[in-house]
Design brief:
It is a single chain. This protein is an all-alpha fold. The protein folds into 2 domains: 69 residues, no CATH class; 63 residues, Arc Repressor Mutant, subunit A (Orthogonal Bundle), CATH 1.10.10. The chain contains 8 helices and no strands. α6 packs across α7. The longest helix has 32 residues. 13% of the residues are buried.
């Protein structure tokens, strides 16, 4: 690839694992329907790369917070939750009841405890620009 526009990208198109990016532009029905130009395609890839960089930075921050501020029991529950496990599955894996799994992650009915509450407090204290549900 000698196209100057592609040299601006953080992607190496000569790397076989990145060939799909160029194929996407050439073969995609979206490209064929919209008539997207190479320049527009490059801009879209740059936006995707920026998004992925931000996501990676956020995951690094959250991983650090989880590892350094949560109890071992909270860590176990949160990691399973982030792996897509349901509260029922978490309870079964950790050999606890479903309510205990819920409370390790979300806190009790009065809003006390819970990994999310703890992370929110730490995020606020550190003045990080992160929003948790």
């Amino acid at each position: 690839m000698d196209d100057e526009k592609f040299k601006e990208l953080p992607f190496n198109f000569n790397d076989p694992k990145n060939e799909y990016l160029l194929r996407d532009w050439v073969e995609s029905p979206r490209i064929q329907q919209t008539g997207e130009t190479k320049e527009e395609f490059v801009e879209r890839l740059k936006e995707i790369e920026t998004y992925l960089q931000k996501k990676e930075a956020l995951l690094k921050i959250l991983t650090d917070l989880i590892q350094n501020y949560l109890s071992d029991k909270q860590k176990e529950a949160v990691i399973l939750f982030l792996m897509g496990k349901t509260y029922q599955e978490i309870a079964e894996i950790l050999n606890i009841d479903v309510r205990a799994a819920w409370e390790r992650i979300n806190g009790d009915a009065k809003g006390r405890g819970g990994a999310i509450n703890k992370l929110k407090k730490i995020i606020k204290k550190k003045n990080l620009k992160i929003s948790l549900p």
